[in-house]
Amino acid sequence: MHEFSIATQVLDAAREAAADHGADTFEGITVSVGDASHVNPDQLETCLDAAADSTITDGDLTIDIETEPAYAECACGWSGEPGEIDRALAYAPNLTCPECDARLELQAGNECRLMSVTLPETDDGSDPDAAGSPDANTTD
Amino acid sequence: MYHTSRHPLTDATPIDRLLDRLLSDSGVLGPLGAHRMGHGEDDHEHAGDAEADILAQFAEQADDLHERVVHDHGIFVAEFLGATGSGKTRLIERLIERAPDDEEIGVIVGDVAGEDDATRFRELGVSVANVNTGKECHLDPSLVEGALEDLDLDVLDTLYIENVGNMVCPADFPLGAQARVLVVSATEGDDVVRKHPLLFQACDGAVINKVDIAEAVNADLDLMESDVSEIAPEMPTFRTSAEHGDGLDELAAFLDERGHVHASDHEAYVAGTGHTHAHEHTHADGQTHEHDHSHEDGHDHAHTHD
Question: Which CATH number fits domain A3-123: 3.40.50.720, 3.30.1360.120, 3.40.50.300, 3.30.2320.80?
Answer without folding.
Answer: 3.30.2320.80
